[in-house]
Amino acid sequence: MASADKLKCVLCGREFDPKSDVFTCPDCGPDGTLDVLYDYGEVKRQFTPEALAGNKERSISRYIELLPINDPTFFPNLKVGSSPLYESAYWAKKLKVKQVLIKDDGRNPTASFKDRASFIGVAKAKEKGATSIACASTGNAASSLAGCAAVAGLDCYIFVPEKAPVNKVTQLLIYGAKVFLVKGTYEDAFKLAVKAIDAYGWYNRNSAINPYLVEGKKTCGLELAEELSFDLPDKVFVSVGDGCIISSFYKAFYDLKQIGLISQIPQLIGVQAEGANPIYKAFKEGKNVIEKKPTNTLADSIAVGEPRNWAKALRAVRNSGGDMVAVSDDEILEAMRLLARTSGVFGEPAGVTGFAGLLKYAQTGKLGSHERVAVIVTGNGLKDSESAKRAAGSPYEVEPTLEAVSRIIGSAN
Ligand SMILES: Cc1ncc(COP(=O)(O)O)c(C=O)c1O
Ligand SMILES: N[C@@H](CCOP(=O)(O)O)C(=O)O
């Protein structure tokens, strides 16, 4: 089993010992997020396609050699990962590309991609001997943390903006978390959570600060690679808010390249909502600073005006030769409908934003007919039924007679 070898600042490259409790680079401040690096020579010996093929574990702990935890007893007893990967012949034909793959990460235990990170966050808290864990969230990181903490027997404190979708807040409460509905935005909830975490000494599960969380998130990229026998698609489309998820795909592929299982990192295409697009803007303008702005999008999970993982996100897009797309709320709602009606995958608005980005990107003519693309659906549609209702339309209301049904069928045809 390998363990994290060093932590390295994404901005200045300064290295830290993983045994220290440092989360962000003291020289660079909060923007100096850290990479968790391994002894790749050691990992290479253990993390082989043959060893994976013989590994019966379905949860993300199957990738323990590339995770920052080396005692499996710290992992919560939840089956995180192994989400379905579908090939859509329909979309390949429609978009005139070789292959379209759809990975439905809304099929995790608490119905979002975030379970991958919280699984590791909770294990790290246990490793540190913490009894309480906390985060700020738009809802998904929180519900995943609440679920994982409940299984692991940790007290859980959550800070969400007051407008968080009711289903997400209900999830938190049913898992027994102590929930603070913050009067303000996600940014306000984030700042308050940081203060409370400092004041009470809770373990911090915020991917924008804690470098180990991205290691959990990267398991989606590892899984995609393993499912495709390490023959990755040319492009991966993924929605972007704080920028942690896209960074995690870069990290997964970076690690796989280090150990020689892939030779090239796929192009990462980050998709933001037009009403919350600071990383998109910085990328398009070739800048290395982020313009903070109030947000305006129905995709609540990516309604982030002050992204904290921008440095890693920009590196992911730039180093992979990728691109960024911004989509309107109408395009997101249309993507929700189209994805559900053609593939059966029901995503929340931020969950399908990557798919909305693929549809928009395809119109630019930048996709070649030889290309294979993957889209990551990051959250389940049932998380936000109000937005789903806006996308879905209304049912027919009828008297309980066949005549009433016939009238509607007749007028609909
Ligand atoms: C469903 C969903 N999609 C996308 C994102 C965006 O991820 P990130 O903020 O890491 O960019 C989030 C939350 O972060 C989310 O909950
Ligand atoms: N939109 C995110 C924000 C924080 O999540 P994290 O996993 O990046 O810490 C959410 O799901 O709450």
Automatic annotation (TrEMBL):
E.C. numbers: 4.2.3.1
Reaction equations catalysed: O-phospho-L-homoserine + H2O = L-threonine + phosphate
Record's keyword terms, sorted: Amino-acid biosynthesis, Lyase, Pyridoxal phosphate, Threonine biosynthesis
GO BP of this protein: isoleucine biosynthetic process; L-serine catabolic process; L-threonine catabolic process; threonine biosynthetic process
Pathway: Amino-acid biosynthesis; L-threonine biosynthesis; L-threonine from L-aspartate: step 5/5
Domain annotation Tryptophan synthase beta chain-like PALP: ranges: 79-379
Principal EC category: lyase
Modified residues (N6-(pyridoxal phosphate)lysine): 114
Gene Ontology MF term list: L-serine ammonia-lyase activity; threonine deaminase activity; threonine synthase activity
PANTHER family listed in its UniProt record: L-THREONINE DEHYDRATASE CATABOLIC TDCB, THREONINE DEHYDRATASE, MITOCHONDRIAL-RELATED
Name of the protein in its database record: Threonine synthase
